[in-house]
Write a structure and sequence with these properties.
By secondary structure, this protein is an alpha+beta fold. The protein is 42% helix and 22% strand. The chain is globular and about 60 Å long. The model has no long low-confidence stretch (mean pLDDT 95).
Length: 422
């Protein structure tokens, strides 16, 4: 059965998206709030879900919320903050067993009510502010989370490359904000931001699972705050690579060097060549059959790991690897050669087949996760892509070698970041 999403407008900038599937014995509902990624509010947006899940009017502590979820047969609640290009997305999700399997016809409604309670009915002080000690505690937690990102050197090297590469773009901002901002956030100004957050954010509600007309009508009537002046978030603009490559080296107390090479492409996600760009990225560094794995890791024995990542909304391709410190120049040289070979068509039809199959398999696997189904359709909304999963898979099948070459030729080196030893 082909997965489809029915989108219903509830209010200005607020939509309900219904995706019916009988594949799972559970249902899922997610609220996606989209904000512009900028210095003014990035940290407030990251702090908000931490404070909201600390307690509500009806369940004033985190423990009370946990006990309520236990009574609801272990319904699973989660929040997340991430960036999609120069958008900051704040997600609130509840996943639970379908009420039909539990013999409780009201169960679905109880779980949905709890999620809206968390989002829309926070515990407040008398002077219309968040609870002071909750905000103070979550500021400490967020400080710890932001400061701890340096502990994972591989992901930190990637983030540092993006920060340097996109230093004049909001995409350089860390999705969870900045520690220095927290000094200026308190229970009053955070609550003021929360009111604006509810009123002006584009909101997409996704329900995935089984439902009937009664549940649809219930979802349409969910508690809603007044909506006004919905913010417009423009599409990301593509930036050209500089004429002179940025070379950044930073020294840390580490035993393995972390090399990240950042490339920019002129191919946007809505370009006819975008699928070919994805195939090119997979041929380059998508797995054990990729050019980088075979030539840098296996033949030259230079890398402990090496792979590529494409950032959809920015048309950025990153190559990250773990290497010995003395192998920096040679690794850069061989990596660049693999990209040149890709541009010159030095790859086989077998390379094409393996990469296209890999992309098809990863796309098909979305159907096996109720969470990924919601994520997929939300991503499709952001990119204004109306294709179904099946259509995307078919489009991969149609990619030709000359298109991959053309897509590869769009790549230009922007930044080389190396985390070296002190």
């Amino acid at each position: 059965m082909e997965l489809k999403s029915e989108r219903i407008k509830l209010q200005e900038g607020l939509h309900l998206n219904l995706i019916e599937t009988e594949k799972f014995k559970s249902n899922l509902i997610s609220f996606y709030f989209t904000r512009p990624l900028n210095e003014e509010e990035v940290t407030k947006n990251a702090l908000l879900p931490l404070v909201l899940k600390s307690g509500t009017k009806q369940y004033p502590t985190n423990l009370a919320l946990e006990k309520k979820m236990e009574k609801l047969y272990g319904a699973n609640f989660s929040v997340a903050v991430n960036k999609r290009g120069e958008r900051q997305v704040i997600r609130f999700t509840m996943q639970w067993a379908n009420g039909e399997y539990l013999g409780d016809s009201e169960y679905d409604y109880k779980v949905i009510d709890l999620l809206t309670e968390i989002i829309y009915n926070p515990l407040l002080e008398k002077d219309k502010a968040f609870k002071k000690d909750y905000v103070a505690r979550e500021k400490k937690n967020l400080t710890r989370i932001i400061n701890s990102r340096i502990n994972n050197k591989r992901s930190y090297a990637i983030e540092r490359c993006i920060e340097e590469m996109c230093s004049q773009e909001n995409f350089s901002l860390y999705e969870l904000g900045r520690v220095n901002d927290l000094d200026h956030i308190d229970e009053k100004n955070l609550y003021k931001h929360y009111i604006d957050f509810l009123a002006t954010s584009p909101i997409e509600i996704f329900f995935v699972g089984q439902y009937d007309d009664k549940l649809i009508e219930y979802l349409k009537q969910l508690e809603q705050k007044p909506r006004e002046d919905i913010i417009f978030i423009p599409e990301d603009k593509l930036v050209e690579a500089p004429k002179v490559t940025r070379n950044i080296k930073e020294a840390f107390d580490i035993n393995q060097g972390k090399l990240v090479m950042g490339y920019r492409s002129s191919i946007k996600y809505d370009d006819a060549l975008y699928n070919a760009f994805l195939v090119a990225g997979d041929i380059l560094g998508g797995g054990a059959n990729s050019k980088l794995f075979k030539h840098v890791r296996e033949e030259a024995s230079l890398a402990y790991y090496i792979s590529t990542t494409i950032y959809k909304y920015k048309s950025i391709l990153l190559i990250d690897s773990g290497i010995e410190f003395e192998d920096f120049e040679r690794t850069v040289e061989i990596t660049k050669k693999q990209i040149d070979d890709l541009k010159n068509g030095i790859f086989t039809e077998k390379d094409m087949e393996v990469s296209i199959q890999s992309l098809k398999t990863s796309t098909e696997s979305i159907k096996d996760s109720i969470f990924l189904i919601a994520e997929f359709f939300f991503s499709q909304l952001l990119s204004k892509d109306k294709r179904t999963l099946e259509q995307i898979i078919e489009d991969f099948r149609q990619v030709k070698k000359e298109e991959v070459i053309e897509a590869a030729k769009s790549l230009s080196i922007d930044t080389i970041y190396f985390m070296e030893k002190k």
